[in-house]
């Protein structure tokens, strides 16, 4: 299968090479390879416990891989350019500001209002101008359709609203790419659509995204590429129409069958 | 009973004792809360040495009776060449003792914080002191409001011990009125009433702050 | 300071702890009684308990001891210093125990009482065989915590002029003109005693955590 020309030419934003991870005796990831190009939406699929979250967390070094390395726009994450010395907290933090993350359970900061949640890291981590950040934050809240809740505390919002704030908060950092870990799986079914709609818009506007999801329809319609994981290994990877209509492996077939049965 | 009339006539004595109790307790509460937050950071630190040091201090204070600690500080500081009033050495005792309790209750609230929002702090580039100050401590304080209120009440009660090292606080004032006029019932009832009113005020304040805090949890 | 002085301080510590233990022994059932009054909403009496708990919770042990020792003779009840000390500490710990027992009672599953009734148990039997053992189980960690705090605050009785740990140390200090060493000894001795309570408390908490783990 040949990827579309424009994708092949787009610069690589993030690459993971030979990433492995175990927790004690439990090997969770083995030799993972992933290349994400600018403007791509890569969907990570796989059964529960296959290591999707762990892999995503390795990408911004929230979890330290045992082997392999991760490169963000040519710069290695976690390991210093000079060699095998692990970066200190400050260096890691600086790199993490370039990778936005959206969490399964939203993980908004409960003591800050919606607007403050969005402004917090740009002001206090990136040290950008407060007035400018505020303008941008308000525009972002507008964009995810939640401007009227700017002064509310997260506890007052519905799950769908919280997750849209989560997305606005990640976008406010102007990251090179966004990571999503099952952004809709903690939502009531009727609220899933509003979050997926925002993500779909982002994909169309050319945001680079890595999305762990169980929303097969979203993966099929929006992904530029799907990567299927099982037991910590990449089993299949390719264009969504290919994967969903002609899966190459038994395991992928079984996985898809289970979802279409639902 | 005209005992209460006598106490009323000497209300300035009682009230100045009361003012001392409030001042001692308020300063001790604020300072031990702030230092307690620092100690809680040590209790939760990655460094094992910091954790062990902080734990030893907290455990020691859980075993030391306040009155004997107050005596020790009162008699001990001068032998290090530090001279200070009973009032100040009483205040120091209150702080040294209650820092440990504040730290422990903050640590418990910290340990119960949802892991994900701290993780989000890391993911958005917070680290070190700024992570603690901006992302972790505010929700910790909100969650700990009722416990902080309880500990403040405890501080007020501890401050009464200082009467034994002759600090002019509320109980001391009541004792002074009683020894002059032999009106024990009225003077101690008046003192206890003032303690009680103060505690009620703190509990009302805690309930109020608790409502504010609840929206932010 | 001589070994005899250390021994005198030790005796003071034993005295203070004994008074404190006496108050704990009386205060436990007393607290349960008060808690039952509130739990079963006995008219008038339960209001009384509410006020008692609220006032005592706010009263420093020192002030309470002074009130009981100096003021009760005014209304015709004259207590010796030792009795006054026990009464003070008992009233204080019973108030806190009331709240602990009440919490345990309130979280007690109602169906269990009902099922006991279905087996035809009498009220007293029901309480003794079904409710009480479980009540003790759920209240124990908090009760031991309160005991620890009680033992820690009992040197307050020194204000009554008793030769407890505090006064024993003061006496040695007054005689040797060097008050620091006896207070160091007193502090260390007494802290070791409290440490036994703290360790018991930890042990119970650890067991409970293990029980919870086993249940999951
Ligand atoms: N911090 C950890 N300590 C120990 N084991 C862990 C840890 N995090 C994850 N694991 C284990 O790693 C494996 C993969 O977990 P992971 O959360 O990455 O799976 P997942 O594909 O995201 O599953 P799901 O779809 O349920 O979210 C699981 O067996 C899990 O128990
Ligand atoms: Mg997961």
List the helices and strands and how they pair.
The complex is a heterotrimer of chains A (262), B (217) and C (216).
Chain A (H helix, E strand, L loop, with lengths): L4 H5 L2 E12 L2 E12 L3 E5 L6 H8 L7 E6 L2 E3 L11 H8 L2 E4 L11 H11 L5 H14 L15 H13 L5 E5 L7 H16 L4 E4 L3 H7 L2 E6 L2 E6 L1 H6 L4 H12 L1
Parallel strand pairs in A: 3-8, 3-9, 6-7, 7-8
Antiparallel strand pairs in A: 1-2, 1-4, 4-5, 9-10
Chain B lengths: L2 H7 L1 H33 L4 H16 L2 H14 L6 H26 L3 H9 L4 H34 L8 H12 L2 H32 L2
Chain C lengths: L2 H37 L5 H14 L2 H11 L9 H26 L3 H9 L4 H31 L11 H12 L3 H36 L1
Bound molecules: adenosine-5'-triphosphate (ATP) and magnesium ion (MG).
Subcellular location (chain B): Cell inner membrane; Cell membrane
Membrane topology (chain B): Multi-pass membrane protein
Keywords (chain B): Amino-acid transport, Cell membrane, Membrane, Transmembrane, Transmembrane helix, Transport
Descriptive key words:
A: alpha/beta; 6-stranded mixed β-sheet; 4-stranded antiparallel β-sheet; 10 strands; about 40% helix; C: about 220 residues; mainly alpha; 8 helices; about 80% helix; binds adenosine-5'-triphosphate; binds magnesium ion; cell membrane (chain B); Amino acid ABC transporter permease (chain B); MetI-like (chain B)
Largest sheet of chain A: 6 strands, mixed
In one word, what is the shape of chain A?
globular
Strand order of the biggest β-sheet of chain A: 6-7-8-3-9-10
**CA-to-CA gap between the ends of chain A?**
30 Å
Keywords (chain B): Amino-acid transport, Cell membrane, Membrane, Transmembrane, Transmembrane helix, Transport
Family (chain B): Belongs to the binding-protein-dependent transport system permease family. HisMQ subfamily.
GO biological process, one term (chain B): amino acid transport
GO molecular function (chain B): transmembrane transporter activity
Explain what you see:
- The complex is a heterotrimer of chains A (262), B (217) and C (216).
- With 262 residues, chain A is of the alpha/beta class.
- Chain A is 38% helix and 24% strand.
- In chain A, strand 9 (225-230) and strand 10 (233-238) form a beta hairpin.
- In chain A, helix 4 (114-124) packs parallel to helix 6 (159-171).
- Chain B is built from nine helices and no strands.
- Chain B has helices at residues 3-9, 11-43, 48-63, 66-79, 86-111, 115-123, 128-161, 170-181, 184-215.
- Chain C is mostly helical and 216 residues long.
- Chain C has eight helices and no strands.
- Classes of the chains: A alpha/beta (262), B mainly alpha (217), C mainly alpha (216).
- At the B-C interface, helix 3, helix 4, helix 7, helix 8 and helix 9 of B face helix 2, helix 3, helix 6, helix 7 and helix 8 of C.
- Magnesium ion binds next to helix 2 of chain A.
- The site of adenosine-5'-triphosphate has 11 residues of chain A, from strand 2 and helix 2.
- Chain C: GO terms for molecular function: L-cystine transmembrane transporter activity.
- Chain C: InterPro entries: AA_ABC_transptr_permease_3TM (IPR010065), ArtM/GltK/GlnP/TcyL/YhdX-like (IPR043429), MetI-like (IPR000515), MetI-like_sf (IPR035906).
């Amino acid at each position: 299968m040949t990827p579309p020309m424009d994708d092949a030419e787009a610069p690589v934003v993030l690459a993971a090479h030979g990433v492995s991870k175990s927790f004690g005796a439990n090997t969770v990831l083995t030799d993972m390879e992933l290349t994400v190009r600018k403007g791509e939406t890569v969907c990570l699929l796989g059964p529960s416990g296959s290591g999707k979250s762990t892999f995503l967390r390795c990408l911004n070094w929230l979890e330290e891989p045992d082997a392999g390395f991760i490169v963000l726009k040519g710069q290695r994450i976690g390991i210093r350019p000079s060699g095998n010395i692990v970066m200190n907290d400050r260096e890691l933090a600086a790199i993490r500001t370039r990778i936005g993350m959206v969490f399964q359970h939203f993980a908004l900061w409960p003591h800050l209002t919606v607007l403050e949640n969005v402004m917090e890291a740009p002001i206090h981590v990136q040290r950008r101008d407060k007035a400018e950040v505020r303008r941008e934050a308000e525009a972002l809240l507008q964009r995810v359709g939640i401007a009227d809740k700017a002064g509310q505390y997260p506890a007052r919002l519905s799950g769908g609203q919280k997750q849209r704030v989560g997305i606005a908060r990640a976008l406010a950092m102007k990251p090179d790419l966004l990571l999503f870990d099952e952004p809709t799986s903690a939502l009531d079914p009727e609220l899933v659509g509003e979050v997926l709609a925002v993500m779909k818009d982002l994909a169309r506007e050319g945001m680079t995204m890595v999305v762990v999801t169980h929303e097969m329809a979203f993966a099929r319609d929006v992904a530029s590429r799907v990567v299927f994981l099982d037991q910590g290994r990449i089993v299949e990877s390719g264009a969504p129409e290919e994967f969903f209509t002609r899966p190459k492996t038994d395991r992928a077939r079984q996985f898809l069958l289970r979802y279409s049965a639902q | 009973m005209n005992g209460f009339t006598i106490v009323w006539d000497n209300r300035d004595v009682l009230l100045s004792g009361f003012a001392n109790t409030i001042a001692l307790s308020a300063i001790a509460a604020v300072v031990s809360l702030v230092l307690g937050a620092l100690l809680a950071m040590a209790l939760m630190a990655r460094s094992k040495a910091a954790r062990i040091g902080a734990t030893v201090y907290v455990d020691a204070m859980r075993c030391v009776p306040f009155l004997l600690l107050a005596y020790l500080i009162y008699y001990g500081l001068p032998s290090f060449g530090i001279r200070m009033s009973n009032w100040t050495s009483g205040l120091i005792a209150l702080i040294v003792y209650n820092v440990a309790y504040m730290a422990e209750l903050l640590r418990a609230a910290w340990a119960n914080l949802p892991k994900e929002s701290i993780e989000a702090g890391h993911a958005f580039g917070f680290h070190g002191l700024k992570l603690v100050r901006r992302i972790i401590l505010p929700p910790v304080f909100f969650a700990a409001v009722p416990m902080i209120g309880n500990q403040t009440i405890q501080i007020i009660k501890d401050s009464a011990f200082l009467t034994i090292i002759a600090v002019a606080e509320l109980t001391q004032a009541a004792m002074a009125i009683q020894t002059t006029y032999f009106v024990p019932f009225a003077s101690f009832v008046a003192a206890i009433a003032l303690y009680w009113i103060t505690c009620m005020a703190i509990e009302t304040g805690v309930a109020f702050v608790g409502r504010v805090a609840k929206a932010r949890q | 300071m001589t070994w005899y002085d250390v021994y005198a301080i030790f005796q003071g510590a034993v005295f203070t702890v004994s008074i404190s233990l006496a108050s704990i022994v009386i205060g436990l059932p007393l607290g349960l009684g008060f808690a039952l009054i509130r739990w079963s909403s006995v008219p008038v009496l339960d209001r009384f308990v509410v006020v008692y708990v609220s006032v005592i919770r706010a009263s420093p042990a020192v002030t309470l001891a002074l009130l009981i020792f100096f003021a009760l003779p005014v209304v015709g009840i004259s207590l010796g210093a030792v009795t006054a000390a026990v009464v003070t500490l008992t009233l204080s710990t019973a108030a806190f125990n009331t709240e602990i027992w009440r919490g345990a009672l309130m979280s007690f599953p109602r169906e269990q009482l009902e099922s006991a009734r279905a087996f035809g148990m009498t009220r007293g039997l029901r309480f003794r065989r079904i409710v009480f053992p479980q009540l003790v189980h759920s209240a124990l960690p908090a009760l031991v915590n309160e005991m620890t705090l009680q033992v820690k605050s009992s040197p307050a009785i020194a204000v009554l002029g008793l030769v407890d740990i505090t006064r024993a140390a003061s006496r040695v200090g007054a005689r040797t003109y060097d008050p620091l060493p006896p207070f160091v000894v007193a502090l260390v001795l007494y802290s070791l005693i409290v440490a036994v309570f703290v360790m018991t408390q930890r042990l119970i908490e650890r067991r409970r955590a293990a029980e919870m783990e086993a249940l999951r």
